[in-house]
Design brief:
With about 120 residues, the chain is mostly helical. The protein is built from 4 helices and no strands.
């Protein structure tokens, strides 16, 4: 039987300690040595966890990228918006007001673009 190798792509959620170190680094209140110590420990732990769950291809989860939230969606949004058509950033509060919906009833607004002439 053929084995299907497993991995993941992109950023993994950061630990609370790494998030705090990122904040301190941005503020200039942590030394490079201390930050690198925390980063190295976090990377060691995330690699260990990937081994424990049986992934075949291991990576550092992009922990070296500074982010202030546990999950960094910024790079995903930038990647998506340069490759997909028909997406736009909207203000959900304005969308709710236009539709007469309260916060619990609001749904994301979708837009559609017609395909280019050569695809019709």
């Amino acid at each position: 039987m053929t084995k299907i190798r497993t991995t993941h792509v992109g950023s993994l959620p950061r630990t609370a300690q790494l998030l705090e170190a990122n904040d301190q680094r941005s503020a200039g209140t942590i030394s490079d040595e201390k930050f690198n110590e925390i980063l190295t420990d976090a990377v060691d732990q995330v690699i260990k966890r990937q081994h424990q769950i049986g992934l075949d291809v291991i990576n550092e989860g992009e922990y070296g990228h500074i982010t202030r939230s546990g999950v960094d969606y910024g790079s995903w949004w930038a990647y998506s918006f340069t490759r997909f058509s028909g997406l736009e950033i909207i203000d959900p509060l304005l969308t709710q007001e236009r539709r007469g919906l309260g916060p619990q009833q609001a749904r994301p607004q979708r837009t559609r673009q017609d395909p280019p002439d050569q695809l019709r």
